[in-house]
Each structure stands twice: as C-alpha cells, then as structure tokens.
Design goal:
Nucleotidyltransferase, domain 5; 42% helix; 5-stranded mixed beta sheet; 21% strand
C-alpha cells in the first residue's frame, strides 16, 4: 500500500513537471520537455501520451527549416479542454473575462456599479448573471469553466474565497464558493487584486531572462483604496506573491477616520476620499464619499498644479503617508523595485516629493541605493495577466496533475 501511494505521488509530480514545462516553454518537442524538466525520455513519452488521450494536450507537426527532414512534433495545451472565468470587483464595475486553457482571452464585458446593490445576496446574483452571460456568449457549458477566479481590493481570508472586508461591501462577509453553489461546480478562488499585479511584474521580469538572483517586486496601487502586492521570483523561476493590508497600516494613530473604521490608516490620507477631505478642509471624522469621481480628483490636481496651497498640501500628505509605508516595507523585506499603478498614478507627480523623502531616508537606502520607482498606467491588464497565470498554474497542479480531469474537453 505504501509503495502504491508512493508511485501515485510520483506520477502526479511527473505530470505536474510536464505541465509546468509547457507553461514556461509554450509549444515544445519531446526532447525539449525532457531537457527542461529533467525527466527521462520514456517518462515524458508516457505522460504526453496520457495527457493527449485525456484531451489535455494536442500535438502538431512543424516543418523543418528548408523543408528537409522529418517534421518536428510539438506538444501544447488543448485550448478548449477547460476555461477560467476571471471576475474583477472594483469601484464602478464588475468585470468578467473568459480565458481558455492556453491562456487566450476569449471574451470580456463589464456590469456597471449603478446596477449592483450593496446587499451581498443581490451582489452574488449579479455575479451569477455575469457568469451565465459568459457561458452563453462562448457557447460552452457551466462544467467547462473549471476555475472562477475573483479579485478585489480589501481583506481576504487566508486560503479561502471569503471576503472579510472591502471598500465596496464594507463588513459584509461573503463566502463566494458557498454562495455560488450548487449552480457552479468550479474551483473558486478570491485574491486581493494587487497581489496579482505584483505577480505579473515578476512574470514579465522572468520573461526578460534576467535571472541572476532572487528578486522581489512591489506593486503599489493608488485609487479610492490603497493596495500593495509583493512578488518574489526565486532562482528556479518560481513566483510567490502576497498582498498585505498595506492601505490599513496605521500612519498616525490620532489621524483622520478611515473607511475601515480605524483612524490614521495610510488610505485615510492617500485614498481619493482622504485627499479630497484634506483639500477641502473637511472635518477629519467625515468621509466625503466612498468613491470620488476621477473628474473631481482631476480638478483638485489642477488646482494643486495652479498653486492652490491646500490642494498641494493634500497631495503632499498623501505622498508622505504612502512613502513612509514603502520605507517600512523596505526595512522588513529588503530593498526592491516599486511599480506604482492605479488611477491615482496620474497624480503621483504631486505626491512625489513626500514619497521620495521617506524612501530615500531609509537606512538601507543610505548604504545601498534608492530602489527603482516606475509608473504603470494599465493596472487592469497587470491584474488580469497575474490572475490568468496563477489560475492556470493552479489548474495544472491541483486538477490536471492529479488526474481529476475526467470529462474535460468531452
């Protein structure tokens, strides 16, 4: 019995190695899979034959250069054997994306926030409606969606698809897996969206093949809410990521009220509502609105650039708060490049002096160098990239490799 268990574990591990190799290389030959994975030729043959029979992989011929010799046989994912539904929850919209097993985007649409209630039950009904639209538009069945991957800002339960707190639903606790049953039998995940943004940054770095040492990457999102993701790329090219509740780290315990109910959080200064409150000298116990229209923020920014001192002060305070937070991050985890993204990145020039003041005075920076700071305008694409990559790896490792894929592609 012990030998059987060991044999089964080895089989899963070898399947996982082949699947992981194809994720990294794209379409690859038998020899390339063996060289990259370290598996024997006979093992690769057995596994690729098995996966092809399960309709997980497809092979095709590639003619040799010059048209001479036997064509190369390349293995790749069968795109139609499984699908991932990626749902992004954010201020104005619910965004639904459908991705096939090869990682190709098949469909995307949004539902405007105006049509979505704050009540959890009604909110879930809108999620279900969006999922139904995905399968109808793609002409697939519900069972062909193997993973429903949801992203949001807010506090997510560790290892469970449970939203504990969010700027959209406040303290309404939502267990997405439980609430999507029994209609949806897919594996349901919930992740803070900034974690996936950081994962995408690490993945892009890996693709550049500059892998001389283990590296960390931070992604800071400036928006109504303030988010932070950190991703680590190890020497083997594997990525791990996490998203601490950075926006709700206390900057000043006697500071203004935050939407989470605490005082003096970074978000209370740097979130859009915090900047507006300071610029208009509103009482620190008042939260002007949950979501400030971007046009209103642009007016405040224009005022600041035209010399309005309170507007300038509001952005400077925002830069101070988030800069001190990043300085603490560097003290805890070491220096790392920081990519700033989100709608608020267009106002970063007004926060930059306060931000850089705190980052540059970090003790480690004094003896090394200021970490690279870059701006990324397309936050939604970063989140989607990281989401799809992580979801496909999870599907490979926890479903396909364990041969729980009966019926996929049938």
């Amino acid at each position: 019995m012990l030998m059987k268990a060991s044999s089964e574990s080895l089989r899963r591990q070898n399947r996982a190695l082949v699947l992981s190799t194809l994720r990294r290389l794209g379409r690859a030959s038998h020899t390339e899979i063996a060289d990259w994975s370290g598996l024997s030729s006979s093992t690769v043959s057995a596994i690729t034959t098995e996966l092809e029979a399960e309709n997980i992989l497809k092979k095709r011929e590639q003619q040799q250069v010059g048209g001479r010799g036997r064509p190369r046989i390349l293995f790749g994912q069968n795109p139609d054997c499984a699908f991932i539904a990626a749902i992004r929850i954010y201020a104005e919209n619910l965004e639904f994306s459908l991705c096939d097993y090869s990682g190709t985007l098949k469909d995307r649409f949004t539902i405007k926030r105006e049509s979505i209630s704050q009540e959890p039950d009604f909110f879930i009904e809108n999620v279900k409606t969006g999922l139904e639209r995905l399968v109808e538009r793609a002409a697939i069945s519900r069972n062909e969606i193997r993973t429903i991957s949801i992203t949001s800002k807010g506090l997510v339960a560790r290892g469970q698809p449970i939203l504990l707190w969010s700027p959209i639903l406040d303290d309404s606790k939502i267990d997405f897996a439980q609430m999507l049953k029994p209609e949806w039998n897919a594996h349901v995940t919930l992740t803070n969206e900034t974690r996936y943004a950081a994962q995408a940054l690490a993945s892009r770095h890996r693709a550049s093949e500059v892998q001389l040492e283990t590296r960390r990457f931070a992604c800071l999102s400036l928006d109504h809410a303030i988010g932070l993701g950190v991703a680590t790329l190890d020497l083997a090219g594997e990525i791990t990521s996490f998203a601490p509740p950075f926006g709700h780290m206390v900057h000043n315990p006697d500071g203004p009220l935050c939407r989470c109910g605490l005082r003096g959080c970074i978000e209370a200064y740097t979130g859009f509502y915090g900047i507006l409150r300071t610029a208009f000298e509103a009482p620190p116990d008042v939260i002007p609105a949950k979501f400030i229209p971007l046009k209103e923020m642009e007016k405040i920014a224009d005022n600041a650039r035209n010399g309005d001192r309170m507007a300038q002060y509001a952005f400077r305070l925002a830069g101070d708060a988030v800069g001190m937070g990043i300085s603490r991050l560097h003290s805890f985890l070491g220096l790392m490049p920081v990519t700033i993204t989100g709608p608020g990145v267009r106002f970063f020039d007004l926060m930059q002096s306060g931000f850089e003041k705190h980052v540059s005075t970090n003790l480690q920076v004094r003896f090394e160098s200021v970490p690279e700071i870059s701006l990324e305008m397309d936050e939604p694409n970063l989140i989607y990239e990281g989401n799809v990559e992580a979801s496909l790896v999870d599907l490979d490792m926890n479903v396909i490799a364990e041969r729980r894929a009966e019926g996929l592609g049938q």
